[in-house]
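Incident review: delayed structure delivery

Summary: a single-chain prediction request sat in the queue longer than the usual turnaround. Root cause was a stuck worker, restarted by the on-call engineer. No data loss occurred. The affected request and its eventual output are reproduced below so the record is complete for anyone auditing the incident later.

Affected input:
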Amino acid sequence: MARRIRYAAAREISKQDPDLTIVAQLDSLQDAADAERDRRLGQGWFEEVRTFFNIDPATYSAPTFRPRIVIPELQVLMLNEATDLSDALPRIYITHKEERDKLREKAYQENWRQSFYNNRLLEAEIWSLFSGTGFVQVGFDPHARQGKGEVFIESRDPDTVHPDPGTKDWKRWSYVQFDDRMYIDEVRSRWPDSGYRVIPRRGPAPGVLANSGTMGTGINMPPGPMSAGPGMTQRLISSDSVVTVRHTFIRDYTEVDITKDERDRMAQTLDSLLAIPKRRRMYPNGRWIVDCEGIILADGPNPFPLGLFPIIPYRAMPSLGWFWGVPPIRYTRSIQQIAERMMTQTFESAVRLNNGMIFIDEATGLDADSYSGLPGEIVVINANSKPPTIQWPTPMPAHMTQLPNMLLDLQKRLQGFSPARSGQTSPGNQSADLYDSTIYQAQSMTRLRSRLMAEPIQATAEMVFYTMCRFYKDGAAFAGIDGKDVKWTKWTAMGDESMEDYGIVLDPGSLKPVSTAALRTIITDLLKAGQIPLKYALEVMEVPNGDEIAEAQQQAQELAALSKTRRPR
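Output delivered after worker restart:
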């Protein structure tokens, strides 16, 4: 990948440019974040992950006389793991002053379903499984939903996020940065006051190296074996009017003097204060800075409430003493690469060494020109001569062809995909409960990752709710399916209530990766015992038109009970 542009170094140093000092400090923060990331994961790790996930043909088709066999088993295993984790739908409850706020909770849940937040969480989990750490961004788009606005969740490429390198706990980080690639027209539309100062770079730029390729930078190599190499290097950058916009959320502890009017107001409203302070923090909620091409587009208080930053990390493996999680694919990727190389060599040996050789006796009167060896070919040989024979080489040992499969089976076990997890339990008379228990015990790695997901999902749910309270107004409605009808739930805007009085509760049981068959068995047993109503059972099992079925059964039961109470004439 090309190195990023040093905005402060690329511009002429001028004492009359106040943006330059701030941009230089932001560059230093990003340098520190990227240095810690490269130290833990290695330089260029995310580009390597993208190549591995996409099975880039430029990497897997080097100039050679033998084709390379690619076995994307690890990619499929990680996607299966992400699917199992996403099957558990988080259930969110909203409380207000120790009471449950069912109206806002219903609107919140419908908004979660309408916006397909679970799909974005799935993408973040896929990033964490392949790269070690995935990121989710929560924001508000005022132009979405025909201008009504929408709180969105976006899964971010980890290569565009630059977290505080000095902390392991993301809830206590001092700053976080992330980059967005935007067209210059969009930049000027979002920040009209300062966006027109941004001029896209064209041609050579200092300190920027761009490799050859098809991204509008460098030199494209002609078709042939050399096209698979790195090619030539040019000091060029893209000139397609796309610029990089950097967002920085930081804890700024700058203090300012409290004015006399503020002191009088505090004395009237805050009776519990022993003394009125003389200074206060300028950014008590955090500071938000947006810069592009060395120009400060925005600089002010954090727009998100309660001092929350809109970036939440997701880890697939726990980290010991540092921020970045360990990529799960690193545990077994070398095993898959060895299996791919051995299978490629096996194929080469089968093609080159296992060809049959045809021997022709001189007494037959044939030679290489008169005998072609075509199927069904009629050849006349001399009388009493030995016909042509085909001699095959000694076949390879069976274990040479089975060894790649043995390595792939080892990879499955190391990644938590044992035979029991796929339903291949030990032979014998096993009951359904024992069968489900065996599968549950085989999902130890999945249960570990679901436990790691609980905390960021809780934080994401809180961030979405507080952002809805901050930006959604009265009249915002969300549609939900009630039987065959569409039922609208309206959102009540936040009035004089304080956001600190609200709380988000995540049901931990909703994230446990319990198999659907086991869940249906439990619900059916409880339903037979009369411990739960039919409506709740159908809702948990997501039966279509469950409300109508439950209502029809309730009416039938009422009619049956009424008929029993009637006296015979």
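Verification: Residues 444-471 form the longest helix (28 residues).
Action items: add queue-age alerting; document worker restart procedure.
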